[in-house]
Amino acid sequence: MLDSEVRDELLAKLQFMHDNLDSQIDSSNKTTVKFVEMLDGCKSCSSLLINLVNDLLDLAKQEKQTFSLNKGYFNLIETI
Q: By the 8 A CB rule, do 59 and 2 touch?
């Protein structure tokens, strides 16, 4: 069963990875272009993975009929 605990754990691990890789870039002047490209790829893939997990969690809520919309006001221009 996919639940928000899985997402939270995944977010924590990805944040740890991003922090460590970013600190390696900052602390090393010998960072190669290939390493930066791989880091960008990791960040892009992890973002897609989080979006996929969030979508799956939303679908599970819809199937359980526990999905609710936030009826609060927001600024569309700021959101986009």
A: no
Cα gap 70→72, rounded to integer Å: 6
Question: Considering its fold, how many domains does the chain have in total?
Answer: 1
Closest-CA residue to 21 (of 6, 47, 52, 42) = 42
Q: What is the pLDDT of residues 12-49, one digit of tens each?
A: 888 887 777 766 665 555 667 777 777 778 878 888 88
Which range marks the domain in which residue 53 is found?
4-79
Where do the DSSP E strands lie in 1-80?
none
The residue among 5, 9, 20 whose CA lies nearest residue 60 is 5
Whether the model pTM is above 0.70: no
